[in-house]
Structures are given as structure tokens and as C-alpha cells.
Design goal:
7-stranded mixed β-sheet, binds 5-O-phosphono-beta-D-ribofuranosylamine, single chain
């Protein structure tokens, strides 16, 4: 059984879609959901999916090795960031080389990097008059949004689209593709 841990800071709709992909599977399971936000919507979603939740704070993540220890003790083989708003610390990157995925709600390398998250991304895309936006699923390294790309998908924008409408179009792509890409990566992992 290959195990996935998901990190999320917000609503958790991507986390939920990924968990649902593996419900009933005997080869892969989401064994843990971790969040830095005690009021994140992902906590309720995890409860409904009967997946254990760990709530941590900056100190635990950046000043101790406890999160890495927990993941290793759980036998986690793939870490999935799904709306996780913190920079991944070096000890986590080093413990999971090319084993941490993230989804960015734009077509990187455009509209990426520090500060480019959530609505800021879609506001910038609209302000630039882009005709398309989309998603980028990538490996995570120590710089925001700089890891090797795994998958991109785009969606056409209409001239009058608001940032909220762009976000909605992009979220549809996220839910359509992230669970499948996570599945392809984890099932493609050589037996460690
Ligand atoms: C998504 O827009 C994702 O691209 C970004 O954060 C948002 C997460 O939404 N990383 P949710 O918490 O999965 O609903």
C-alpha cells in the first residue's frame, strides 16, 4: 500500500478530490492530511472522509523535525500540496526529493513566485488581459513554484471574465487533473 500525505491551508476542495480518487483502492491511500490553519475547511472534509488530520504551526514546521518524522513514521511516499500557503522547509524537501507535488493556478513560469497565490494570481492574469489561464502541476523544491513541471492544462478566458470567474474556470481544471496526475506519479513510483 503506497501512502500519500496532503498539506492544505484552505477550503481543501483539491484535497477532497484527491482523497476520493483513492477511496476503495487497495494499492494507494491518503493516510494523513496536514494543515497550518486550525480553521481550514479541509479539516471538516477530512473528518467526513475519515482521514486523520494534523494541525501544526510555523514553529513545529520550521523549527523542529517533527513533521518529517511523522511522515516517515507513517510510511508516506508522496507529499501533495493542495492549496498549501507556506514555503516547504528544507528538511521536508530533503526527506522527499522529487516526492513533493504542488498545483499552481496559472501557467508557470508566468504568474508564479512569492506572493502569487489564490486571487492574486487571477487578478494579475485579468489585469494583463490574458486570453488563457490554466494550471501547472510541478515538483516542489526550495523556491516557490520553481520545481520541474509535470503537467499543464489551459482554459480560454472571455474578455469580461472577472478574477473570480477565472478562478472558477481554473478550479475546474484542478479538480479534473490533479487527482489523476497524483495517481500517475504515485503508481509510477518504483518500489522503494
Ligand atoms: C487552488 O486554487 C489551488 O490552485 C491553490 O489553492 C487553491 C486551493 O483550493 N493552490 P482548495 O483549498 O483546494 O479548494
Amino acid at each position: 500500500m503506497k501512502r500519500i500525505a496532503i498539506f492544505a491551508s484552505g477550503s481543501g476542495s483539491n484535497a477532497e478530490q484527491i482523497c476520493r480518487r483513492f477511496l476503495g483502492r487497495t494499492d494507494v491511500q491518503v493516510s494523513l492530511i496536514l494543515t497550518n490553519n486550525p480553521s481550514a475547511g479541509v479539516i471538516q472534509r477530512a473528518r467526513e472522509l475519515h482521514i486523520p488530520v494534523v494541525v501544526f504551526d510555523r514553529k513545529l514546521l520550521y523549527e523542529t523535525g517533527r513533521i518529517v518524522e511523522l511522515l516517515l513514521n507513517e510510511g508516506v511516499e508522496l507529499v501533495v500540496l493542495a492549496g498549501f500557503m507556506m514555503l516547504v522547509p528544507p528538511n521536508l524537501i530533503n526527506a522527499f526529493p522529487d516526492r513533493i507535488l504542488n498545483i499552481h493556478p496559472a501557467l508557470l513560469p508566468s504568474y508564479g513566485g512569492k506572493g502569487m497565490y489564490g486571487s492574486h494570481v487571477h487578478e494579475a492574469v485579468v489585469a494583463a488581459g490574458e486570453k488563457q489561464s490554466g494550471i501547472t502541476i510541478h515538483y516542489v523544491n526550495e523556491e516557490y513554484d520553481k520545481g520541474q513541471f509535470i503537467f499543464q492544462a489551459s482554459v480560454d478566458l472571455s474578455p469580461g471574465d472577472t478574477p473570480e470567474e477565472v478562478a472558477q474556470k481554473v478550479l475546474v481544471l484542478e479538480h479534473e487533473h490533479y487527482p489523476r496526475v497524483v495517481d500517475e506519479v504515485i503508481t509510477g513510483l518504483s518500489d522503494i
